[in-house]
Write a structure and sequence with these properties.
The protein has two domains: 73 residues, Beta-grasp domain (Ubiquitin-like (UB roll)); 72 residues, [2Fe-2S]-binding domain (DNA polymerase, domain 1), CATH 1.10.150. Helix content is 37%, strand content 12%. It is built from five helices and five strands. It has a five-stranded mixed sheet with strand order 2-1-5-3-4, covered by helices on one side. A hairpin with a 2-residue loop joins β1 and β2.
């Protein structure tokens, strides 16, 4: 199989029904997506596939051929974080950080389709990403801050 992840093409020797998450973590050594529930319910494993947030623990790699996959590592760097990543840093939008990958990826997808979301739209978009620490207020603030950054970058 051939996958395009974070702008690079990778030849992957795995069964076509292998979950994308396993290839990302085990073969490509990308640790942004986390194994959470393994059922596509918690969002810890989220990635962008053609710009849409998707749960990589339930997506077989055969469905990813020819598609653009972006993980947390593909958004920005330590030196130059993506505006969404920076907003989460600024708002301290994490406690343990386990859900952070899914929250950031989901926020990135939301802002791509709705550049200036309302607070209700942010809450609705993030409602299927589980955070056990209870950092929901900070996470929502970070997503709204990221929307402000996205609007500034467009001006």
């Amino acid at each position: 199989m051939r996958l395009t992840v974070n702008g690079k093409t990778h030849d992957v020797a795995a069964a076509p029904d292998t979950a994308l998450l396993y290839v990302l973590r085990n073969d490509l050594e990308l640790n942004g997506p986390k194994y959470g529930c393994g059922l596509g319910e918690c969002g810890a494993c989220a990635v962008l596939i053609d710009g849409v947030a998707a749960r990589s623990c339930v997506i077989p790699i055969e469905g990813c051929d020819g598609r653009d996959i972006v993980t947390l590592e593909g958004l920005g760097t330590r030196e130059r974080p993506d505006p969404v990543q920076q907003a989460f840093i600024d708002e301290q939008g994490a406690q343990c950080g386990y859900c952070l990958n899914g929250m950031i990826i989901t926020t990135k997808a939301l802002l791509a389709r709705t550049p200036a979301p309302s607070e209700d739209e942010v809450i609705e978009a993030l409602r299927y990403n589980l955070c056990r620490c209870g950092a929901h207020v900070e996470i929502a603030r970070a997503a709204l801050r990221a929307a402000g950054h996205a609007l500034e970058a467009r001006d």
